[in-house]
Amino acid sequence: MPVPRPAAARRRPYLRWVGTAVTGLALAALFLDPAPPPVEKGDTFLTAETTGILDIEVGECFDDPTYSRMADDHVVVYRPCADGADNQSFGFVAVPDGPWDRAAVAAFGWAECERRFARLYPGPAADGLDYYPVLPTAQTWADGDRTIMCAVYRPAGPLAGSTLPLAGR
């Protein structure tokens, strides 16, 4: 005839399982990569010389540049907005002609992209979004490039689809 065990002894296997689970979770946390910090993109993140950027039209989405062995360069690749992407072009701005002055072009680009961003993404529509200008370089300026692209992105991660207000209608 079996001898009845005290209540504490009957709970011991359960406590052992809980202890093992807690230990396993603690060890897993040691090996998991921490969440990446939010991305901040500025006016040097991409330029008109970044391979592939000149192929992007207004409203099109694209990923951040990645290295391509075939191009032996960092390349921006178009991505359908519905598939999720890192960025979306939301406008182009023409810079007044004049001598190349990077600081002046950057200031102009930030101001114009901010104005367009505020108009397209009023109030809550801007929640979680940020923008940056893609500027010409001294070389592309010398070749006649006077265009700045305004791009929107989500610092916390990829866009879930088009961010443009009328794109989904």
Please give the structural blueprint.
Elements: H1 7-31, E1 61-62, E2 66-68, E3 73-75, E4 78-79, E5 87-94, H2 102-120, E6 130-134, H3 138-142, E7 147-153
Antiparallel strand pairs: 1-4, 1-5, 2-3, 5-7, 6-7
Key traits:
169 residues; alpha+beta; 18% strand; 7 strands; five-stranded antiparallel beta sheet
Largest sheet: 5 strands, antiparallel
| Strand composition percent | 15-25%
Flag low-confidence runs. 24-29
Quaternary structure state of the chains depicted: single chain
SSE-based structural type:
alpha+beta
Order the strands across the largest sheet as they lie in space.
4-1-5-7-6
Counted by DSSP, the helix tally is 3
- Give the N-terminus to C-terminus distance in angstroms: 76 Å
Radius of gyration: 26 Å
Helical fraction: 25-40%
Mean pLDDT across residues: 84
Shape: globular
- The count of β-strands is 7
Order of helices and strands: HEEEEEHEHE
